[in-house]
Automatic annotation (TrEMBL), chain A:
UniProt xrefs under InterPro entries: ABC_transp_permease (IPR001851), BCAA_transport_permease (IPR052157)
TM regions (residue ranges): 12-35, 42-61, 67-88, 100-122, 149-168, 196-220, 232-258, 270-289
Membrane topology category: Multi-pass membrane protein
Entry annotated with the keyword RNA-binding: no
Organism: Sagittula marina
Protein name (Swiss-Prot/TrEMBL): Branched-chain amino acid transport system permease protein
Family statement drawn from the similarity comment of this UniProt entry: Belongs to the binding-protein-dependent transport system permease family. LivHM subfamily.
UniProtKB/TrEMBL annotation, chain B:
Pfam families: Peripla_BP_6
Protein name: Branched-chain amino acid transport system substrate-binding protein
UniProt key word Transferase: no
Species of the source: Sagittula marina
Entry similarity comment: Belongs to the leucine-binding protein family.
SUPFAM superfamilies: Periplasmic binding protein-like I
Lineage start: Bacteria, Pseudomonadati, Pseudomonadota, Alphaproteobacteria, Rhodobacterales
InterPro entries in the record: BCAA_transport, Leu-bd, Peripla_BP_I
Alphabetic keyword roster: Amino-acid transport, Signal, Transport
């Protein structure tokens, strides 16, 4: 068997691939956070709860309406986006004038509320959710064993991430968005409906979390706490990438996924903390993050 | 001072005196996980089971009311021991019950040992609790890591699963379960080829599963619990573990875990349990009463264990004529035959172990199952003396040697 640094090649490639898969979720989630923070300046602590909501919505669509994975993949994020829009319109909106801390506290409270209610209704064990028939099974080569569904997740999330990036950087609506980030008052005086833009942005960010949730449902147990287990890592990813940087969030998501995967091969005990060690180092050397702009 | 204030003061003083003179009810404290991953397998159901036991006993002990109170220890030893101490010091709690998460159970056992309060452990399962850390006022009622290791580990090794690889959760319970299973596997002629530890509440087992697959072992043993076990089972299916010829051993599986992952994934797993609701008339009768109060959810082995532990505790306390000294109640219980729907001809040992029959069961396939909660078929009854650690092997310092 081929060995690299005393580790069988198969284990190494396997872990890199797994890193890439986890990185896909990190990227999707931190992307939504970065979009929301970039425009609204809200640290959205409810992001993990929206991710959980996406997974549960997909489960409920299947359970109560008999919808399969594919329709759920479209409908569940739309529903989560609508919930996000309602939250922004009715509650979050009133906090923009205040200190950022209030937005953070509000979203944190919202996350606890959502998790608590779901736990009360559905229990802590969570619900089973199967991958679509067409994507079950594994690919087995000499180098690696990987489930087909997971490889598909990598491709799907890459497409979604690049699509979002193009939407924000290359389209007209994206240019409004970026302009509003720089100076909302000026953009509004040009006749752009900035409050609507803010609502749509928050809804979009939440919908991204919802998509991640549906994608995660067949891999992880659909449980009320699935989001809170992940949210801290996602924040570390955003900080390393640079708060508000779209490309930074995507690239860092994949990068940290792979770093974490490799750590599991060479020093498994550190796998849990390697992301945070990296975060500390980046903050020391480049306080604005790897891709962030110094203000 | 006006007459009104004087009258008020007097009534306050009288009220206080009256309250002081009135005897406090005996309280039974269910200390469990009401917010985390053990909520379904223990949590609310344990509270319901304890209340049922008190109601069935008549609601009074030695002429005083019995009250059940519940606390959430959040799976944290410091939270659990603070709560237990406050209950005992301030709220007249005479028995602390349930205790999921062995690390919390071990911490609380130190408190109840000092205060000589009865500790009825149903969910906590480290065999350490009745081993080196044993206490005279403790009864470990339902299961322990030795019994599961011995039941499942031995049976599977004899069936031909000779080489084992462990996925072990990295705290006292996981370590105990791995050590006990290793001993059982080796005694039955198998070998352990490797193990990997993971933190509690891991969401991604893929890298551990890859290592386990790479080891080429006959069986991958999951020495973890509830949420972790369910995630690992689900992802093992995804990585084609059984399809590629390896077996899976869920060393600790509760009925709610099987319910959580579904029969498609859990089918054909062999496991050891202390109780299954659909074994006979008695178990069905009790379980249906339980399910009525739990929105149709059937009890896990630890729910049944909580009921059995509390009702037998009350009998023993009544017989010993007092409830303050947990050790005296337990000594009375040691002389009693423990006999109810949960266990027949069981007895409490000096090290705190309740010895009763265990059951080796197999999870049904979706075709065999007639509906929700119809999950197990019993393969074999393991007699208590074979299921649990022989007293000669116990490291409990209370045993005279």
């Amino acid at each position: 068997m081929t060995m690299i640094f005393g580790v069988p090649l198969m284990v190494l490639t396997g872990q890199m691939l797994i890193g890439l898969i986890n990185g896909s979720f990190y990227a999707l989630l931190s992307l939504g956070l970065a979009v929301i923070f970039g425009l609204l300046r809200v640290v959205n602590f409810a992001h993990g709860a929206f991710y959980m909501l996406g997974a549960f919505t997909a489960w409920m669509l299947g359970q109560y309406l008999g919808l399969g994975f594919w329709p759920s993949l479209v409908i569940a994020p739309l529903i989560v986006g609508c919930v996000g829009a309602v939250v922004e319109r009715t509650m979050l909106r009133h906090l923009y004038e205040l200190d950022h801390l209030y937005g953070l506290l509000f979203t944190f409270g919202l996350a606890l509320l959502l998790e608590g209610s779901f736990q009360h209704v559905f229990g802590a064990s969570g619900k089973p959710f199967s991958a679509p028939e067409a994507l079950t099974g594994i690919v087995r080569t000499d180098f690696v064993i990987v489930p087909i569904y997971r490889s598909w997740v990598v491709v799907a999330s890459l497409l979604i991430c690049l699509g979002t990036w193009a939407l924000i950087e290359k389209t007209k609506i994206g240019s409004y968005l970026r302009a509003a980030t720089e100076d909302a008052t000026l953009v509004q005086s040009f006749g752009v409906n900035v409050p609507l833009l803010l609502t749509l942005t928050y809804a979009f960010g939440c919908a991204l979390a919802g998509i991640a949730g549906v994608l995660a449902a067949p891999i992880f147990q659909v449980s009320p706490t699935m989001g809170s287990n992940l949210i801290i890592i996602i924040f570390a990813v955003v900080v390393v990438g640079g708060m508000g940087s779209i490309l930074g969030a995507i690239a860092t998501g994949y990068l940290l996924g792979i770093v974490e995967g490799l750590t599991k091969v060479f020093y498994p005990e550190a796998a849990n903390i390697v992301i945070f060690v990296l975060m500390a180092v980046v903050l020391l050397l480049r306080p604005a993050g790897l891709f962030g702009k110094e203000y | 001072m006006t007459t009104v204030t004087r009258a008020l003061l007097a009534s306050v003083v009288c009220g206080a005196l009256a309250a002081g003179a009135q005897a406090e009810p005996y309280r039974i404290g269910v200390l469990t996980d009401m917010s985390g991953m053990n909520y379904d397998l223990s949590g609310k159901g344990s509270e319901v089971a304890a209340r049922m036991a008190v109601e069935d006993f008549g609601g009074t002990l030695l002429g005083e009311q019995i009250e059940v109170i519940v606390g959430d220890h959040q799976n944290k030893p410091d939270v659990g021991s603070t709560l237990a101490r406050r209950w005992i010091d301030e709220q007249n709690v005479v028995a602390v019950v349930d205790l999921p998460t062995s690390s919390v159970a071990l911490a609380v056992q130190e408190i109840t040992r000092q205060s000589d309060t009865a500790l009825l452990i149903s969910t906590g399962g480290s065999s350490e609790l009745t081993g080196a850390s044993c206490s005279p006022s403790t009864a470990q009622w339902t299961w322990d890591t030795y019994a599961l290791a011995n039941g499942t580990g031995r049976a599977m090794t004899l069936e031909g699963d000779k080489t084992w690889f462990f996925l072990t959760v990295d705290y006292t319970f996981g370590n105990a379960l791995e050590a006990d299973t290793t001993a059982a596997v080796e005694a039955a002629g198998g070998t352990v080829v490797g193990s990997v530890t993971h933190p509690r509440e891991t969401s991604d087992f893929s890298s551990y599963l890859l290592q386990a697959q790479g080891s080429g072992a006959d069986v991958i043993a999951l020495a973890n619990a509830s949420g972790d076990t369910m995630t690992a089972l689900k992802q093992a299916e995804e990585f084609g573990v059984t399809a590629l010829g390896q077996d899976i051993a869920g060393m600790l599986l509760f009925l709610t875990d099987v319910h959580g992952v579904g029969l498609d994934i859990a089918k054909n797993l062999t496991l050891t349990t202390a109780f299954y609701w659909d074994m006979n008339e008695e178990t069905r009768a009790w379980s249906e009463r339980f399910a009525e109060r739990m929105d149709g959810k059937m009890p896990t082995m630890v729910h049944a264990g909580v009921y059995s532990a509390v009702s037998n505790y009350l009998k023993a306390a009544e017989k010993s004529g007092q409830a303050k000294s947990g050790t005296q109640v337990m000594d009375t219980m040691r002389d009693m035959d423990i006999d109810d729907f949960f266990n027949h001809n069981a007895y409490l040992r000096k090290d705190g172990r309740v010895v009763h029959d265990m059951y080796l069961v197999q999870v049904k396939t979706p075709e065999e199952s007639k509906g929700p909660w119809d999950y197990y078929k019993v393969l074999r009854t393991i007699p208590g003396d074979e299921a649990f650690r022989p007293i000669e092997q116990s490291a409990c310092p209370l045993l005279d040697r």
